[in-house]
Amino acid sequence: MRTRHIFEYGVALASLGLGGLVAAGALRRRSLEPAAGDVVQGLLEQSGVSSVVTAVLLNFRAYDTMLEVVVLVVAFWGAWSLHPTEARVHWRPSDPILMRTVGGMLPVLWLLGIYLLWAGTSRPGGEFASGAVLGACGVLTLLIGERVPATQFRPARKVVVVVGVVVFMVAGVAGALSAQGGSEVWSYTAGEARGWILAIEVAGAATIAFVLLGLFSGGREGLDVESGGGEAP
Amino acid sequence: MIPSQIYVIAGAGLVSVGVFAWVVRRHLVRRMMGVNILSTGVFMMLIGGARRVEGGPDGVPQAMVLTGIVVAVSATALGLALIQRIYDQRGERSVEERGPM
Amino acid sequence: MIVFDVVLMVTLWVLAVGAVSQADLFKSVVLFVTMGVVVAVAWARLGAADLAMVEVAVGAGITGALFLNTLGHLEQRPGERGEGEDTSHL
Q: What Pfam families does the database record attribute to this sequence (chain A) (predicted)?
C-alpha cells in the first residue's frame, strides 16, 4: 500500500503541475486578430438570425454542427446495441409527493423546451438548449413511471433519430444548389437562410432530445420502471 | 485581474482534479467522472479565456463549448453503457477487480 | 464582485475534489451533480446564457440520471439484470 500512496501523491503533484502549466498558457496574452467573433458580428446580417451563437452553429459552422449530431446518433446506436433486451431504470423515487410534484411540473418543462426552440433565432436558446431540456423532460417522465408517447411507435423512433441529420444534409445541398457563384454547401443566401435554419432547429432538437432520452433508457420501448423498488401507493 | 481570468484558473484546477481522478481511481464510474470533470475544466478555460464582446464572451467559443457539452454527455452515456456491459459479462467494476469468471 | 467569483471557484474545486475522493459512490455522484449546477452559475456569471441552460439540463440533469442508473445496475449481481434490485439505499 505504501507504493500506492507514493504513486497517488506523485500523480497529484503531476496533475497540479499540468493544471498550472495549462493555466499559465491560457492566461498569457496573445494577439489573434482579427478574432473570429468580429467576423461573425460583421456577417450577422447575412446569416438570417440575430443570435450570434445560433448563427455560428447553424450557418457559419453548420458542417461541424451536423457532424456533431452524427456523433450523438452514433453514440446512441452504440448504447442501444449494448443494452440487454429489457433495459430497466434502476433508480426511481418512491415518494408519492415527489412524483406528483414532478408530474405537475412536467408540462411546464415541455413548454419551456418548445419556447427555447422558438427563441433560439434571436435570444439565448435554440437547438441544443431545447433538445437538452426536452430530453431531460423525457427522462423525468420515465422516472415517474410514465411512458413518453412519441417513443412508443417503432418506425417513428427510427425516423426521429435520423431526421436531424437528414434535414441538415438537405439544407446543405439546397444551399449549395441555390447559391449564386460558389457551390459550397450550407451557403444559403440571407433571404432563405432563416427558413432553413428553423427547419434544422426543429429537426435537430427532436433528434437531440430523443437521443438523450434513448441514451438514458437504452432505446427500448418496453422500459419497465414498474418492477422492483417500492411500489408507490 | 479581470473576473473572467478567475475562471481560467478555476478551469485549470478542474483539469488537475479530473486528470488525477482519471489516472489514480480504479472504479470505472469514478474514472468516467474524472473525464467529465476534466472536460468541464477545459470548457471553462475556453469560455473564461475568450475575448469579451459587449454583453458576454465571444460567440464562437460559446458555440464550440455548446457542441462540446452535448458530445461529452453522449460519450459519457456510451462509456457508462460499456461499463454496465463489462459488469454483466465479467463481474468487474474497477480496473483490478476480478469477478467470478 | 470579485469575491463572488473567488468563492465560486473555491466551491467548484471543493465539489470536484469531494466527488473524486468520496468513498461512497452515491455521495460522489451527488457532489458531481451539484458541481454541474455550480458550473451553470459560472456560465451565467460569464454571460454565456446558452451554456448555462444547456449545462443545467445536461450536466446536472441527464448526466446525473445516467450515473445513478449505472450505479443501480452495478449493485446487482452480474447475469441477473433486472432481478433483485436493491434500491433501498438509493
A: MnhB (PF04039)
